[in-house]
Amino acid sequence: MKTLGIDGCRAGWIAISLDEEHAGYWLLESDKELKEFLEEFDRTFIDVPIGLSPSEYVRKCDDELRDVLGPDYQASVFNPPIRPALHAPTYGEASMTSYEETGKKISIQAWNITPNIRTIDQFLQNSEELREKVFESHPELLFRILNGDNSILQKKATKKGLRHRLKLLKDQSKFADDFFRDIKEEYRRNQVDEDDIVDAMALALFALKSLEKEIKTLPDDPPEDETGLPMAIHYV
Q1: What Pfam families does UniProt report for this protein, alphabetically (predicted)?
Q2: Rounded to an integer, what distance in angstroms lies between the CA atom of residue 18 and that of residue 214?
Q3: Is the distance from CB of 216 to CB of 236 less than 8 angstroms?
């Protein structure tokens, strides 16, 4: 099975595979490229909300993830838009829809990733095959697991935090150091940030691990949204 980790970046998406036979990295700058990769690989861990609530401002999986990560990292977990607001053409309209349903407006951070949420949602709505092999995950949870279920003391935006995360990855994969350096050299910072690289590698590593270990979820028994998509954070 071919496994992949994908994280959003300024230029589109950064995709990484840490499989022995398929190891590589790719900058996907169009929805067409993204869809082709999701179809080609057998399992993908991706950092984007998938199942969306029809009326609850906070998904249970995000609530539990914040509890696991602790107060210092709660800001890294965004509440995605409710499904009725997903296709609103402007932030104002999406925020008003959210307010009418939940009493709360959409955050700017959540609105900024809404185009990515819409893209993945459209793919999954149109393909039962992709529903079976594309899994929502969260890099900060994965790094916490790599760190022995302890929080990393420095945020990934700091040099210390980035180096710590990269070391955790290097301890697990012989490709991590070279991929990090090569991606930095090949792409500009206005295309792919350093933290995008380590996040995509963490997702790729756990997608690979999931071939041998049971996939777990937050929450343990995740609910599905009205379209049948699970509202869950996946990990091993």
Answers
A1: DUF429
A2: 18
A3: yes
CA atoms within 13 A on the CB side of 141: 25
Q: Which residues pair with 6 in a beta bridge?
A: 15, 46
DSSP string computed for 114-161: HHHHHHHHHHHHT-HHHHTTEEE--HHHHHHHHTTS---SS-TTSHHH
Place of tokens 């994908």: 6
CATH code of 163's domain: 3.30.420
**161-210 pLDDT, tens per residue?**
999 999 999 999 999 999 999 999 999 999 999 999 999 999 999 999 99
Contact predicate 10/28, CB 8 Å:
no
- 40 in a structural domain: yes
Strand-pairing partners, residue 4, are: 44
